[in-house]
């Protein structure tokens, strides 16, 4: 069952947009917000994920709070009757902190040591997607059977309203590629958290544009955080903007304190680069053969239904004078 183009469902505090199928333009420019692109060439696009930055920031900030609290408690330790400081008083902060943070850091390190999952490989010449499980099982899914869903939810609290969103890429299991889709149907799920609405669309547009427009419409691979990528770029921009607007002293002692001491992004950047230094590749003979180039006359083509949907969507975006959409060309 093919979903209506850009179907949207929503409730009081939630919203869900069905971006594909059909894989029509979203109206957003392709942006790799989460550095999901591992490899890109004229044949295929590899999508992978190493999403542990939120866990690192949370754990390091909590550890920093416990350390500061323990230090303050120790410095304020009262003297007993004999004029000596009770050494048990110094354990009030470290022991609870160790009991809480120890298991959390253990789980984080355990997950960090796990091998990276094989990437999803999108072959634009065959118009298929290669799905590979950790145990080596793989199968090929027609591109027009790939579902992209962008759910978002609004959380209310004392701080106000905050919106969170994700991008879910759903693919049918082996042997079920042409079975009807429904919400409760089991499948292979690849989920990332670029943000709600336009952010999820921009991340999906990286994949859609590669398959329907070409490699030149997609950003270059940048799986590791660096000064040019979204991770380091955001840090550098926030530091420079704080320095220009509020003074370099403020930038050093406030922005620098938050980024480099409380969150310790320098260490995270190091472990992320180390983790992503050697990216997993597809090693199954069938996948290797499938990834080889084809003569242009053997390239798969869009279905007539998808071609019509894309043409109608392009006309709609052109009429609305959308600033995000560029010139799209068919295969």
General description of the model:
The protein has a domain at 224-275. α1 (53-75) packs antiparallel against α2 (94-113) and α4 (230-246) runs antiparallel to α5. The chain contains eight helices and eleven strands. It has 331 residues and is α+β, with helices and mostly antiparallel strands. Strands 1, 2, 8, 9, 10 and 11 form a six-stranded antiparallel sheet that branches.
Short summary of the structure?
By secondary structure, the protein is of the alpha+beta class.
Secondary structure topology:
Blueprint lengths: L6 E4 L3 E7 L16 E4 L3 E4 L5 H23 L18 H20 L6 E4 L4 E5 L5 E5 L4 E11 L2 E6 L1 E5 L16 E5 L5 H15 L17 H17 L1 H15 L2 H11 L9 H6 L13 H16 L12
Antiparallel strand pairs: 1-2, 2-8, 3-4, 4-5, 5-6, 6-7, 8-9, 8-10, 10-11
Helix pairs in contact: 1-2, 4-5
General form: elongated
Helix/sheet category: alpha+beta
Unreliable stretches covering 5 or more consecutive residues: 322-331
Q: Portion of residues in helices?
A: 25-40%
How many helices in DSSP terms?
8
Q: How many β-strands, per DSSP?
A: 11
Please describe the biggest sheet, giving its number of strands, its sense, and whether it closes into a barrel: 6 strands, antiparallel
What integer is the average pLDDT?
A: 83
Strand/helix succession: EEEEHHEEEEEEEHHHHHH
The radius of gyration is 24 Å
Strand content: 15-25%
**End-to-end CA span:** 25 Å
Keywords: Membrane, Transmembrane, Transmembrane helix
Transmembrane segments: 43-67, 87-108, 247-271
